[in-house]
Structures are given as C-alpha cells and as structure tokens.
Amino acid sequence: MKAEKASIRKAYTQFVLENGQAPASVYRFCRDLELEEAEFYSLYSSFQAIDQDIIIHHFTEVIELLEKDEAYQAYSAREKYTAFLYAWVEHSLLHRSLFLLWQNQENNPFAKGSYMKALKTSFENWTEGVLSEAMDNRETIRRPFLSEKYPEALFLQFVWVHQFWLKDTSPAFEKTDAAIEKSVRLAFDLMGEGVLDSAMDLGKFLFQQVKG
C-alpha cells in the first residue's frame, strides 16, 4: 500500500484501542500494513509522532468546523472561545476511548505528553487571534507583562476542561457544560476590566503603605 498519513493514523489508532498500547515496533506495524518502513519514516519519525499528529489533526478539524458556521463569525470573542470548547467536547466523542487510554497511561498526559506540546502551540496561535479581537472590543484589556500570558492561561483552562470531561460521568456530560460556562466566565472576567484591576490596585496601595 502507498503510505498516507490518514491511513496510518487510522490503523495505528485501531491497533492501540484493540491492544491497549502502541505496536511493539515500527517493523511489526509496517509488516501488518504491508508497508515499507521507509515509507512510514517518510511521514512519521515514531509512534509518539503519530500521537502528536492525531491530536493536532483533531484540533484542526474542530477549528475548521467552527469557521464554516456563519453564526460563529458574528460571535463575540468570549462566545467564540465558548463555542470552541463545546465543539471540542462534542467532536472528542469520536476519540474518547483513545483519550481515556492516554489518560490512564500517564498521570497527566496533557501536561506530559509530547503530542500536547504541538497542540499547545497550535492552540495559542489560534487564541491569539481571538484575544486580539477581544482586546479590540474591550472584552479583555491589555496589561503590562500579563497580556502576553493570556493565551497560555487559556490553554491551561482548556486542558482543565478536557480533563474534567474525561472524568465526567453525568448524563450527556451535563457537568462539563456547566464547567465550561463557569470557567470561561471567570477567565474572561479576569482578563477583562474589573476583578483583576481591582486586585492589582489594592496590591499597589498596600505596597505603597508598607514602603511609605
């Protein structure tokens, strides 16, 4: 067979789900696929690279689905980010068994897994656009030293939502829906004008009292 990323991803995912682990070797995997190792290595350097590609491909599909929705284009930045989290959870049902397997193989795969490093970059690149729009619309405000950390903070919140969903046993994942709404509200409230500014203002005042 001619090597294609999609076919390799599919065969690899099927093997992992059926056996609870990655194939013993690239040689064995390629032999079962009737694929030359050289063709495999022309696309992937390792099984870990396939894990990474699976999660990135999944993320890309979610973004593409959102951007095809005309209603999404008119959303505020907060609404776009909320829609992303809902779409992520819904689309992730296709891969829930695989995500759970990764979860069980590592204590915190979305912090340790190398495939997440690439997703972190992709995610932050996407959120930078959303946050730029949010700042233009005053949904969030620019703060010295802090604004540049917003994408990273949202990534941590996204990871938390994903982990919450993996552990959620409520009907139709109702608790995850509530977690999304509440955590997004908090995130944008903190990035917006008000809560954090009041805390920073108080901090400056207290510091000046001690200093003075």
Our measurement of the CA-to-CA distance between the termini, rounded to an integer number of angstroms, reads 76 Å
Specify the CATH architecture of the largest domain.
Answer: Orthogonal Bundle
Portion in beta strands: under 5%
At CATH level 3, the topology of the largest domain is Tetracycline Repressor, domain 2
Number of domains: 2
Structural class: mainly alpha
Q: Which overall shape is indicated by the principal axes computed on the Cα atoms? A: elongated
- Give a count of the beta strands, DSSP E runs of length 2 or more: 0
- The low-confidence parts are 108-113
Helix content: over 70%
* Tally of DSSP helical segments: 12
Main sheet properties: none
The sequence of SSEs as H and E is: HHHHHHHHHHHH
Average pLDDT level: 86
How big is the Rg? 21 Å
CATH class membership of the largest domain: Mainly Alpha
Question: Could you explain the architecture of this structure?
Answer:
The protein is mainly α and 212 residues long. The protein has 2 domains: 1-44; 52-211, Tetracycline Repressor, domain 2. It is built from 12 helices and no strands. The chain has helices spanning 5-19, 26-33, 37-41, 47-67, 70-73, 77-92, 96-105, 109-112, 114-136, 150-167, 174-191, 195-211.
